[in-house]
Amino acid sequence: MTLNIEYLKDIIRKNMELFISIRRDLNRLAELSYEEFKTQKYITERLSEWGIENFPIAKTGVIGIINRSDECIGIRSDMDAILVEGQPRHCCGHDFHMAVVLGTAKVLVDMGFEGCVKFIFQPAEEGPGGAKRVIQEGGLENPKVTKLLGFHVWPGVDVGTIEVSSGAIMASVDDFEIEFIGKGGHAAMPEVTKNPIYPATDFIQSANNIFCAFSNKLLPFHVSFSSISSGQTFNVISERCKIRGTARTFDSSMQQFIYKNIKKLAKLSAQKYDCHVNINYYFQYPPLINSHQATEEFLDVAKKLLGPENVKKAIPSFTAEDFAFYCQKVPSVYFRLGIKEKGKGENPLHSPYFNASEDSIFYGIFLLAGYLFAIQKS
């Protein structure tokens, strides 16, 4: 089927009232990771209403399929809200993501799209990483996903504009807890204690010196110490001091470099002050790496649909996304969708003041549906 761009735009415009109402419905249903039961039910009902095959996955997720075949292109939307000021709220824009992907599904059905598409509504992106569970439960198989699209609404980017680049676009994230164990006692008699704060602060300084020395613009990384805790009062030297932090990079080899040096330096600091140390290092998400070939194809279509001036190069962000796990399995493209318009879309993600222009829904659907029509084999 040859793509008629104006006809596609017209179909989306005629349905925009529905798509906006879907976004608002989902916003009111905001649920935390693996608690998205009402959201799951809502998505299931919409897909069924439009005659789209669907089934649950990963506890609270949903998969929809049109024109089932052996192979397909996938589109992923996350589903979960975050806790903001004590309440589950969609301050990361996942309500917009779901509305765009649901809207894309309806438009493809209404326009008689003939290719096979799998819509992956994935729970728990905010943690503990629902993408891994979707993969483990066969979400990329039957039909086999040969290419996957994902996106995130992005503050500061104008409506009608996207940002995308091949290669690493979001960072890996690893967390660590390091506990130094000394010998507690009275603060008036430090000579008979082994104060665990000393190796802890020595470790932080040593790590900072090493990582600053190895700072590399070609392989950028961050190691941040976010918490240090020991004792609760003035005159007691605690037996334990715990440090927490996070490490982020765009390169898997740099992940290993950071991990090995954190272990090495923590042990040296403990030894220096005759203390013990427990090291827990958690490899969370890998870097999100867009496929070069798939991204170049996507860029070519996006420029024709949106205009080359509205397709910007994405600067890699040190934030992380579990979409990275899909990228390890299939050629994938992850882009940023502009939401800034008329005073909206300026506050950061996860802010209680986050908002976005609902006009961005139109462009998200237009781009996804237009891309699928453009690459569909005749």
TrEMBL record:
<keyword id="KW-0464">Manganese</keyword>
<protein>
    <submittedName>
        <fullName>Amidohydrolase</fullName>
        <ecNumber>3.5.1.47</ecNumber>
    </submittedName>
</protein>
<keyword id="KW-0378">Hydrolase</keyword>
<dbReference type="InterPro" id="IPR017439">
    <property type="entry name" value="Amidohydrolase"/>
</dbReference>
<feature type="binding site">
    <location>
        <position position="152"/>
    </location>
    <ligand>
        <name>Mn(2+)</name>
    </ligand>
</feature>
<feature type="domain" description="Peptidase M20 dimerisation">
    <location>
        <begin position="176"/>
        <end position="266"/>
    </location>
</feature>
<dbReference type="InterPro" id="IPR036264">
    <property type="entry name" value="Bact_exopeptidase_dim_dom"/>
</dbReference>
<feature type="binding site">
    <location>
        <position position="350"/>
    </location>
    <ligand>
        <name>Mn(2+)</name>
    </ligand>
</feature>
<feature type="binding site">
    <location>
        <position position="92"/>
    </location>
    <ligand>
        <name>Mn(2+)</name>
    </ligand>
</feature>
<dbReference type="GO" id="GO:0050118">
    <property type="term" value="F:N-acetyldiaminopimelate deacetylase activity"/>
</dbReference>
<dbReference type="InterPro" id="IPR011650">
    <property type="entry name" value="Peptidase_M20_dimer"/>
</dbReference>
<dbReference type="Pfam" id="PF01546">
    <property type="entry name" value="Peptidase_M20"/>
</dbReference>
<feature type="binding site">
    <location>
        <position position="126"/>
    </location>
    <ligand>
        <name>Mn(2+)</name>
    </ligand>
</feature>
<dbReference type="Pfam" id="PF07687">
    <property type="entry name" value="M20_dimer"/>
</dbReference>
<feature type="binding site">
    <location>
        <position position="94"/>
    </location>
    <ligand>
        <name>Mn(2+)</name>
    </ligand>
</feature>
<dbReference type="GO" id="GO:0046872">
    <property type="term" value="F:metal ion binding"/>
</dbReference>
<dbReference type="InterPro" id="IPR002933">
    <property type="entry name" value="Peptidase_M20"/>
</dbReference>
<keyword id="KW-0479">Metal-binding</keyword>
